[in-house]
Amino acid sequence: MNPMIDLVADLGEGFGAYIIGDDSELLEIVSSANIACGFHAGDPDIMAATVAECVRRGVGIGAHPSFPDLRGFGRRDMGLSAHEVQNDVLYQLGALSGFAAFNGTKVTHIAPHGRLGNLVAVRADYASAVAEAAAQVDKELIVVAQEGELASAARSAGLDVAIVGIVDRAYQEDGTLVPRSQPGAVLHDPSEIVDRTIRMVVEGKLRCASGVDMDINVDTVLLHGDNPGAVELARLIRSELVAAGVQIAPLAEVMDAKRKAA
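Now predict its structure.
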């Protein structure tokens, strides 16, 4: 059986008159979307339009909650308590779920954004807060994460975990990302990124920044859409995966197939 993978991008990350990324083009490439819920980006009009387009194109819908950091695009640590994090996640998940229900569908996954996404991988209190919020809202929600505290907390809460591969970021040997403050943390060579993606999906291997190969079993691949050339790179990644015999499908289908094969 050929490998099956979800392709996901962060969408709906404009605000008011400000537009970030080419959502229309990316929606032709991805099979799932992480949709901003208003805290780091997005607003009711953008959320409504993005959800409607996902439904029209058969793209899976995911919540992309963050710290309440609109000015910093969710990339700053807000010093919140775990209780505050849980309430913020519930608020954002509830908002997106409302738009999904209005369009006759539901949110299928949750993927924390930015600094929150980084911290839930290493802070057990934040991880438990997010996992409990997701589990109490919908036991069928899929938690998108790297291996770490959030993945562990989500599994303990009885939720499916989809491991995400971030193909344009350098990895450390423990499976965490090289901090953006360090040289070489972000990869820019399209051919290198495409090769890493194919190897990650087909072989389950990834070359770390140290030069050591690590095993990695990903269910979804994150395609960034807010930098120059992002759409062209995303389109190339999809075409090369298909040429390698990989099936592209929304995350819920990927996880269902994984369960049936287990």
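Residues 82-102 form the longest helix (21 residues).
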